[in-house]
Specification:
alpha+beta; Zincin-like
Length: 127
């Protein structure tokens, strides 16, 4: 699958956010890479598949002196997603879901909270 399609789907995910949240995405770089490198897989039980990764200080953990830092980083791993999906539409959905999940970490939500929100969304409810 071409990286350009993944980047397009990442943009779709960002554009799906309410304007008020999009405006708060500041100093964060969102990229697509083939697969996780180096230390990312260390200390993860096998078969652990990392689809995306947020690296930085979540907004809710920043103080008034949190300025002039390198950008936070969200990485979406193309080959990992391709391994799990049988169709292009499935890949698109998983890229969007993964991007929104990692953006959730940027805003300060933990894994449990993000899973609960996803379950609620799938059931058609609002939280």
């Amino acid at each position: 699958m071409q990286e350009d399609k993944f980047k397009k789907w990442v943009r779709e995910a960002i554009e799906s956010l309410p304007v008020v949240l999009r405006k708060k995405l500041y100093n964060v770089e969102i990229t697509v890479e083939d697969s996780p490198r180096g230390e990312i897989h260390k200390n993860k039980p096998l078969p652990y598949i990392i689809l995306g990764l947020y690296q930085g200080v979540p907004l809710n953990k920043r103080g008034v002196f949190h300025t002039h830092f390198f950008p936070d980083r969200i990485t979406i791993f193309r080959q990992q997603i391709e391994k799990l999906c049988a169709s292009e539409e499935g890949m698109r959905e998983l890229v969007i879901k993964t991007t929104l999940h990692e953006i959730g970490h940027y805003f300060g939500f933990n894994e449990r909270e993000l899973r609960e929100m996803e379950i609620t969304r799938l059931r058609g409810g609002n939280k």
